[in-house]
Every structure is written in C-alpha cells, then in structure tokens.
Design brief:
The chain is an alpha+beta fold. It is about 30% helix and about 25% strand. It has 20 helices and 25 strands.
C-alpha cells in the first residue's frame, strides 16, 4: 500500500525533515514504495504540484522540491501501485482547482465497478479524469458531493467538507463493498484546499501529531512557540500533521492513532491558531490529553469562543430575488381579499375533512394563518399576497370538485387577484383542475415508502444501513414516541434551536408545516435520544392520511450537534412502528424541483429548463437545499410520484416566480393576514 503525509500550520514551515531526513520520512519509506511520488504545497492559496513515476528515495527532484517547500499546507504521497500503470498521471496527489487529495488503500476488483463509479461522478468533472486508478475516481466523486455546497472555487466549512467526504465514501462502499468473499475497500484519505485539511481513516492506519517533544530546528526557527513542544493548554493547536506512518524511533514527535472512520481536521483562525471543531475536535484534544496522562479520564476544556456566523450567500440572493416582486407589488394594483366570501365551517369540520384526505400533506390546511373557502362541494385553504393567492393542503372534495374549483377561481377573480395557484397537486388531480380552468406543471416529487417492502437489507439501502448502524452502535440512539402534553417544551426548544441554526432562518412557508404543539389534531411526535443527554437530539412529526391507511412525515428537526445517524435511526424506527400498526404507506414528503418520475409530455420545455436550473445550480441550492434534500430521501429507496403546481389564468415564468415567492424561497413572503388574525 501507499504512504502519505499531510501538514497544516498557522505559519509557513519547512517539511524537508519529515519528507527526507527523519527516520520514518517518506523518502525512507519509498524503498518499498517505488511506483511514484508527488508533493503538493500552497503559495498564496494556490496549489503547486510536482509528481513523478519514479521512486522518491533516489530522486534528485524529490529532494530538491522537499528542500524548497515552505508552506502552511502540504500534502505528499509515495505510491505502491495496486491499480493503474506506472505513470505521472497515476501518481498522487490528485489536483482539481484548489483541491488536492491523496489516498492510501484500494478498491478490490476495481475494473468490475469502474463504470458504475464513473457514472456517479458529475459529467462536467468526469471529463477531467486522466489516469487509470481507483484513487482518482474517489477524488472526483468527493468533488461531486462537495459541489452540493457551492462552487469548488469557493470557501467551505469543515462540516461541509466532512459531510461531502463521508458521503462520497459511503457511496463508494455501497457500490463496491458487500459482495460475497470480497474484502472491503480501503479508503484512508487526506484532502485539502489549502485552508481546510481533513484526514479520514478508512481502513489503513493514520496517525496525527500536534507538537514535537523537541524541535530539531528550535535554535534557528524564528516562529518557535511553547505550543510547538508541549500539548495545548487552551484547546487550540498551531500545527497538525497526519501521516500513514507515525512511528518514529527518535521520539521527536508525539503521535496518536486515528481510530477507524475517525477524522482530524483543523481549520484556520485569525489569531489563535487552528480552531477545534466543536464536537469531534474537542474529542480529539481529549484523546491527546488522555494519552499524555496515561489515564482514561480527560480534563474539561474551556469552551471555544463563539464568533458571529458569516453572512450566508443565500441572504443576498434572497434579497435580489425578491426585488421584482416588491416592485410589482408597489406598481400594480392590489387585490381585495375581503371580497372573497369567508364561509364559516362548523367547529371541527375542517379537521374532519382533512383526516379523510387521500394524502398526507393535507394537514397543511390546518396550519395557522390560512383563509378558508368552503362550499357544499368541499373546501380549500389559501393564503393571500397583495396580488396572488396560493391554495395549500390540496383540494378537499366532498361533492363536485369541478364546481368547487370553479367557484374558488371566480371568487378570487372578482377580488382582482392576478394569479390563483394551488399546491400540491397530485397527478390524478390534473384533469379535474384542467376542467376548472387551471394549468399545471410538475414541480417536484414526493417520496413514498411502501411499508410491506421496507427493509434495510440489500445494496440499495447500504447508505441508510450504515448510518443506522452508526447511530445505534456508536452513539446509542434510541427512539420514543413523545406526548406533547408532558414533553412538548423540550421539543419546542429543539425546534427553535434548529431554526436558529439554519443558515437562512426563514422556514419555507406554505411548503413545510410547523409542529403545532398547541393543536396536534391527530399529529404524532417521535424523538431520538442518546444516553448522555437529557433532552431529545432530533424529532419528527407524522400526520394521518389516506383514510387512515398511511402517514406523512411533516417536520424533521435536529440539534446542530446531533450525532451522525440520529435522523436515519429516527425515520427508520418510525416507518417500522407505523408498519407494525398496519400502515400501508409512509410519505417522506415532497422535494421541490426534484425530477424522479417520467415528466408529462405537455409540460413546457422552457419552464422545465427553469426548474432544472434551480434544482441543479448553485444559486437555487443556496436559496434552499433542493438537491441535498432529495439525495437524503433517496437513501430510503422510496417510490417517487410527481407533485404539480396549478395556476390560473396562465402558467408561465411569472407563475413559477409568484409561487416560489409565496413559498418563502426569497425570504418571508408578504402574506396578508386573514380577518380573524
């Protein structure tokens, strides 16, 4: 197998000793790893990469490069080939833009899964694969996942890089592992963009070090500090080195082994060195303290200082996206919602209608702040903006549905609403809406789990199974049904904590429900707990539907520091419990903009292009996590059904913009309160 080395520091440092002179330097290890080498280092934030297909031990170029390199971030690698020919193209590290990656390990029988791995890579990245190795495919699959958080030339948080890397590794294992009599893939990795360096133990040993017992350059180094030769006392470190071989006979550096699937990832601070990541970095520091003291307990570290969260790029995009709507509201005449008859329903009548709804998201009709339009033929609930109206929760038909929709449309036309929209609309309802004068367009897909077929076995559930096992075995996640009468306060605190922690705090109004702790009206609440916390770390609400034959998942909320796999364990247990109670189907909810079903041929190609641009592009996913939401639900291998938006009198780009604006895609929508608000 290969050997690799990663270095991250707050000061520019020479790495010649680690690469050439130390007794365990890469040059020494290259005696048994003669199939190529590479060194990547950063200058002014840009990577400089030198590679060769020869052995490093006798390479004058390797010694020259190692002697010249002085950088804050360095990644080096020596190769023992398992896949691919001996060539510069197959030598590590691999580079794309600012990103560099080195890999230690291999994927058994790589040629058998090569095509499937390449198919999982984004087409625009796939064309940059130049070599024959499994490692290069791993790198570009990581970049594919990282694209979900923004352009690769941008800045990323440690959490985003960690999520992308772990997701990529999980996808690789789902494709490559699990075959009979086959060894698992070995995927120990170091990735960096010069600012964030992250190492992942994926089966081959990795060691880390944060200080030397005695620096060999202490008499000549102008940047020598006490932290260089002693363990941190503040919880912050100035240097971090990750290596696939940390054993040193001279003892000049203190090494600790990373556990399997654990991570080490410093990130820069302006004044205090390399910041610790609140959860796992604290654990890493505690492991260091335990190793030094020789005892099992760890001292309490001071809390890391809280910095104000950076302004999310989506906030600016939301403001810009809302400009055309605000100009239209100011320049064009407003509607008069008071002219729409607000026909009162008997107490509990709407709740009774919704409970009989042939859908799970009909409970959106019970959200506070909505207006009600009712006739003898049924009811609709809707929200009013200055010039547009949006009915949510579906069409609740009792008698003649066409007559109900026609009366609703005519009443809003009299009130001078320029557009009347309905969402969500199921495929089977499109003909009814068309007969009432509405036009519709597929604007997403809803994920359904048929409980009779739900299982964690098989390759299609490999990602979900891995996360469930992690949550249960590593963190002890357990699930319980919560009575809001007794424990609603803890769930309410969690819900608002979750909202506050979101990069864009506004919830998607009229698209995602609220927990409604004060008026459950048949909702049920399930929470995930871990042994060392008094309060839940995640919860979901489910609403009844399908005439009692199914349930719909509505709100999903989790603590920002909830352990990995908590939500996966929670949803899996909820589906299992509801199935045991006789439920036939569980809806995981709609994913706006997602295309998971054959599209109606009559849909406008231009409007379809607009939605694909929002779903796949950087701008759309900065406004709302369209892609990651659908990708997460894919783990449950659901049955997808199209969800439509209906509009009158026309369905065009302005209809889509008005609908997105009322959903809250561009911030809090300008809704007019109902008369009794």
């Amino acid at each position: 197998m290969c050997r690799m080395f990663g270095f991250r520091s707050v000061i520019q440092s020479h790495v010649h000793r680690s690469l050439v002179q130390a007794d365990n330097a890469l040059a020494v290890q290259s005696q048994n790893h003669r199939d190529g080498w590479g060194v990547a280092y950063y200058v002014d934030g840009a990577p400089h990469l030198t590679k060769s297909a020869t052995g490093a031990l006798d390479s004058t170029l390797f010694r020259r490069v190692s002697g010249l390199v002085s950088s804050e971030t360095v990644v080096a690698h020596i190769r023992q080939a398992t896949q691919g020919n001996l060539s510069v193209l197959n030598s590590h590290p691999f580079q794309y833009g600012r990103w560099v990656m080195a890999h230690n390990g291999d994927i058994p029988d790589f040629e058998e899964v090569r095509a499937e791995l390449e198919a999982a890579i984004a087409p625009r990245l796939r064309r940059f694969i130049l070599g024959d190795t499994d490692s290069e495919r791993v790198f570009f699959l990581f970049l594919t996942e990282l694209c979900q958080f923004g352009p690769l030339a941008g800045n990323f948080t440690v959490e985003e890089v960690m999520t992308a890397l772990e997701t990529a590794v999980a996808r690789i294992r789902a494709i490559c592992d699990g075959r009979p009599d086959e060894k698992p893939s070995l995927l120990s990795l170091i990735v960096t963009n010069g600012a964030v360096l992250l190492a992942l133990h994926g089966g081959k040993e990795l060691y880390y070090s944060t200080y030397k017992t005695r620096c060999a350059d202490r008499d000549s180094c102008p940047s020598l500090k006490p932290e260089c030769e002693h363990a941190t006392q503040s919880g912050f470190v100035n240097h971090l080195i990750v290596s696939s071989n940390g054993r040193s006979r001279t003892g000049v550096r203190s090494w600790w082994g990373l556990g399997r699937r654990s991570r080490a990832y410093p990130r820069p601070r302006r004044t205090q060195g390399l910041d610790r990541y609140d959860g796992n970095w604290v654990q890493l520091q505690q492991e260091i303290a335990s190793a030094e003291s020789g005892v099992a307990t760890s001292p309490t570290l001071p809390p890391s200082p809280r910095l104000p969260p950076p302004r999310h790029p989506g906030a600016v995009l939301r403001w810009l996206g809302n400009v055309p709507g605000r100009l239209g509201d100011a320049a064009l005449p407003s509607a008069d919602p008071a002219r729409v008859p607000e026909l009162p329903l008997a107490p509990g009548a709407l709740e009774a209608i919704v409970r009989r709804s042939p859908r799970g998201n009909g409970y959106l009709s019970l959200e506070p702040g909505l207006r009600t339009f009712a006739t003898d033929d049924g009811a609709l609930t809707w929200a009013a903006a200055p010039r547009h109206a949006l009915a949510v929760g579906g069409v609740h038909v009792i008698g003649d549905g066409q007559r109900l929709l026609t009366a609703f449309r005519e009443a809003l036309a009299v009130a001078r609403f320029s557009k009347v929209m309905l969402f969500p609309v199921a495929t089977g309802e499109r003909r009814l809406l068309r007969s009432a004068g509405f036009r519709s367009l597929a604007v997403g897909a809803e994920a359904f789990v048929d409980t009779a077929d739900f299982t964690l076995a098989g390759r299609k559930h490999a990602d979900l199974r891995q996360m469930v096992n992690r949550g249960v075995k590593r963190y002890g996640v357990r699930v319980e049904e919560v009575s809001v009468a007794h424990r609603g306060a803890s769930l309410d605190h969690l819900y608002h904590h979750w909202l506050d922690a979101r990069p864009l705090a506004d919830p998607m109004a009229l698209l995602i429900g609220t927990p409604c702790f004060e008026r459950p009206l048949g909702r049920r609440y399930f929470a995930a707990r871990v042994p060392d916390r008094p309060n839940p770390v995640a919860f979901v609400t489910v609403t009844p539907g399908w005439q009692g034959a199914g349930w719909g998942v509505d709100v999903m909320a989790r603590e920002p520091d909830a352990p990995a796999g908590a939500m996966d364990v929670l949803l899996t247990e909820v589906i299992t419990r509801l199935a045991d109670e006789g439920a036939d189907v569980v809806s995981l909810g709609a994913c706006p903009m997602a295309e998971r079903t054959p599209l109606p041929r009559q849909d406008s190609r231009f409007l379809r292009w607009v939605f694909r641009w929002l779903y796949r592009g950087w701008i759309g996913n900065r406004l709302f996590p369209f892609h990651s939401l659908a990708h997460y639900k894919d783990k449950f291998a659901p049955r997808w059904e199209a969800v439509h938006l209906a509009s009158w009198p026309r369905l065009n780009v302005w209809s889509l913009y008005a609908g997105c604006r009322m959903w809250g895609l561009f911030g809090s929508p300008p809704l007019l309160p109902p008369p009794d608000a």
